[in-house]
Amino acid sequence: MNPRRRGTAAIITAAIASLLVAACGTSTNGNSSGGGGGTQTTLKIWDFSAEQVQFHKDAGAQFTKEHPNIKIEWRSITQADYMKTLPLAFQSNQAPDMFYWNATGLSELLDQKWIRPLSPDGTVPADFTKRWPDGSFLEGINMQDGKTYGFPFTENLYWGSGYMFLNKQVFQQAGLDVNHPPKTWTDLKNACAQIKAKTKAECIAAPTKGEDMQRIWYGLVSSVTTSSTDFFDYKTGKFNLTEPGQLKTFAFIQELKKAGYLAPGTNDKNFSRQQFAAGQAGIYFDGTWMLSVWDSQGFSSDNYVVAPRVDPDEGQTGAGGRTYDGNKYWVSSQTKHPDAAWTFIQWMTDPNGYFVQQYYKNAFGTLSYVDNQKMVTHPVLKQIMQIGAKPGYRVQLPEPLLKCPDIAKSKAYVNALTKTPDAEWEAMNEALVSGQSLASVGAAIVKQRQTALEEGLKQEAAGGLKVSMDCYTFPDWDTTKDYTSDMYKS
């Protein structure tokens, strides 16, 4: 090994170890002494929602008030560090009792041996599942062999990426009206030209560092083509990074950059968000979660509005994808307190309980087990709901396992994705900096993923699973409309 690389690796390892110690603290994962001389279980929960730290502290205190024998220790780690620290915690047998994770699904988490069922015996009562719409608990999504491992946390109509935020001050300085936002790609370029000409601000604060580029990407591509966040097209059954709709969208982003309409530099999302909030940029593309992020920074909703994503000039030809998998919180396989975790989960998902009431009071988003029309009061979140509810803004993606139940046992798709993870974002970053065509930079990635999927399915079929590429292909689907449950029977 190169000595310099070895030294760098040692520094990184030490840094992660330091983070793990800080996150774990000094308390044990056993019982700790509670007030009044009794015993009190400490339930450790980890996530990366920095803007929710005070809310989680308050929620934990309220839960303990109602359940004195259980203390909540809720820790938030920055997202980049969290993605390194949590795996290290499992490797060193220091994992929390519950954790937030949406980077991979049920199959991968079971393979990694990170999770156990929600309840101590693996079953959940009907009075728990009835909090969610029918079809929310599915084998292979949050259930395996009849045991329930997850629950939908965020709903998937309003919650998600693909919204355009406009800074009122910058728009006013440019002589633009936030109540008449850009609707097409040409409108966007014209607004950018005016912002550049009449203000000192950049037009679009667009992070382009690593996967943070997804902010502007989903703000544009979802009007062009409908695909999963894995760059997979369920209509054709192909990984589609280099398909025409994707290439068209990326070429437009390159055009914006060349015209000077993207803020200069290879910035991360935090820098771009602060740039927008400081009035240094007029437009920022992102998701529902931004309301609470900016509220926590003192940038109130009086200073910005939210608008729909912009369509290509010829009109909308795609939509944002909705999936069945809104599962975010999991019970750790290493917990010694499954009863306490189950008690907390039931409390957390009480539609009329403290957690829900405060979650909406703080405008953190929309939950899947709550009447959002009734609960939402934040003015911008109401705007988001109006946008998201528009027919065709988001559509339900087909779910292969509903077509082929054996997909729940298949590893082919997961294995295809684990080959050079984040390669699509890396290819975009490279092409944006170099000015190359995304087709040339991304071709090898698409070929690698497609070959892995097809060969993996063939091997599994030879081993007895009823799987094939047909399970991932829905040629008759109108990609601007929901793929509904009755379509699997046709």
UniProtKB/TrEMBL annotation:
Name of a matching Pfam family: SBP_bac_1
PROSITE patterns referenced in this protein's UniProt entry, alphabetically: PROKAR_LIPOPROTEIN
Keywords: Signal
Keyword DNA-binding: no
Signal peptide start and end residues: 1-22
PANTHER family: ARABINOSE-BINDING PROTEIN-RELATED (PTHR43649), DIACETYLCHITOBIOSE BINDING PROTEIN DASA (PTHR43649:SF12)
Protein name stated in the entry: Carbohydrate ABC transporter substrate-binding protein (CUT1 family)
